[in-house]
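Example 4.3 (complexes with small molecules)
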Amino acid sequence: MSTPEVLETLAVADWSGPFEPDVQARAADALEAGKVLVLPRLEFQFEPCETGFLDPSVAGGDRKNISLEPGATTCNAAALEPAQSERLAALMRRFADQAEALVEGLIPAYRGRLERARTSFRPVEIAGRIYSPRHDDRRLHVDAFPTRPMRGKRILRVFSNVARDGAARDWRVGEPFEAFAEKFMPQVRRPMPGGAWVLAGLGLTKGRRAPYDELMLALHDTSKLDEAYQADAPKTPVAFAAGTTWLCYTDQVLHAALSGHSALEQTFHLPVDAMLHPDRSPLRVLERITGKVLA
Ligand code: SIN
Ligand code: FE
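Answer. The structure with fe (iii) ion bound is encoded below.
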């Protein structure tokens, strides 16, 4: 696949618009079609007094990411004093607010339906880390999280490369979701009957997994563990330059993050019926393939 097929690049230079109707239409169509929307002119600004947070040791210990839950006033940056942690949390909340204004400005139909989830700050270099294959996001995957059932809801993520040394964030973007799902579905194992209910009852998941979640987790794991797929699957290298913002549905876009440091990320959840084209959602694609209602 060539780069233009997986990316849509827009000259947006303002977090909150207002955006022209043709820009809005291109943004919505590209995102829901499973492309990455790239905004090379949209930079997240650090205040001069905030640049110290870009030191990778801010995460503390073995931690790679710092996260902020919606509504929280401190983040889990173990290496910071409480007052500093609050300042970093304020920076992350500013990013979250701007990311939300951006998505709602680009796709007004999502307004009031978009649910703000976690914000993360990723100061540590990706390359050279040691992971188990299942946890290694340098392998192509779609996002699915064992403890957070989505029950069909979408995962939309906004990223900004805030590196001050000019380092790009290097991704690979894979094949369209439907082709990927068709390929792996025959290998995906059946979930244990009653298993979702037990996990929720034990507090191991935030709410009960739907059959959709079981399938997405199985697709995530099976594809990450498939060495031949990882080596040979179609993939397009994409380098997000420092100062760039990009967004995509990471439950749909096959992606791998190979290298880079200093990124901010905001996650949103969106009900499938809030989409302009719900039939393009992984839920509907998997329901078509399996012939079953999955959430
Ligand atoms: C991922 O979602 O797999 C990681 C993306 C990134 O940190 O660039
Ligand atoms: Fe991911």
